[in-house]
Each structure stands twice: as structure tokens, then as C-alpha cells.
Amino acid sequence: MKVGLIAHDTKKKLMQNFCIAYRSILTKHELYATGTTGRLIEEATNLNVHKYLAGHLGGEQQLVAAIEQNEIDLVIFLRDPQTPKSHEPDVFKVGTVCDIHNIPMATNLATAELLVKALDRGDLEWRDMYR
Fold it and tell me: Shortest CA distance to 61 belongs to which of 105, 93, 38?
């Protein structure tokens, strides 16, 4: 499965810790991330991450385009609703295309954990019929 990973600036450390905790699951899948988030994940976990541009430089749009092309099966977007910044990726854009294309998306740690465990159990294999 292809997993998209995005994190607002204040959630990047949380994303690193999430990927460390679930490294054994994530290593079995293809990971895609906006530039800075991807680099930080690689540094913390030694996982291979396909990196788009930084979110504010177009990485978010690249990920959205991949979702629209049915190239992403799951998105984890750890967002900070309390301190959003104009240069950070827009959860509404990503969420909208995930909804349109029936892509599961987590926006917080609790849901991210549920989805990654479902991924490990094979609960998302139904995505294969969409490709």
C-alpha cells in the first residue's frame, strides 16, 4: 500500500515518534511525504520515504495530485488546528480529495494508530480493486 504522510510544523516530532513506533508496519509499505516531513521521518527511522517538495513549495499539491490519480491508499495528516499557519498544508484540500476518491485519512494520533493497525491486518486490501 502507498501511505501519504503530512504534518504541520508543531506535529512533525509527533509524526517522527509515530513512525518510530510503527516502523515495523510502515517498512512493508511505500511511504510518500511532503519534503520536510519526509526528511525528518527518514532521519528518525531510516525508512525509505518518497519525498515531494516541502508543503509550502508545492508538496501538498503534489500529494493531492497523487491522490487524484489514485496513487495513494491512505493518508496520515497530523494537523495542528490551534495554531495553523498560512504556509502550512491545507487539511481541507487534502481531506476533500480523500473524500472524493474514497481514501482513508487520519488527522490525529488516535485515528492514525487505528488506520496503521488496520493496514497491518490487511483491512485496506479493498484498495487494490481501485487500481
Answer: 93
Q: Which three cell numbers stand for residue 86?
A: 498560512
Overall domain count for the chain:
1
| Strand ranges across the sheet with 30-33 | 49-51, 30-33, 2-7, 74-78, 105-106
Q: Which domain holds residue 43?
A: 2-130
Query: How do residues 25-79 score in pLDDT, each as one tens digit?
Result: 999 999 999 999 999 999 999 999 999 998 888 888 999 999 999 999 999 999 9
| pLDDT tens-digit series, residues 87-117 | 666 778 899 999 999 999 999 999 999 999 9
CATH assignment at residue 27: 3.40.50.1380
| Cβ pair 17, 40 in contact under 8 A | no
Are β-strands 2-7 and 30-33 bridged in parallel, bridged antiparallel, or unpaired? parallel
d(C-alpha 24, C-alpha 94), whole Å: 26
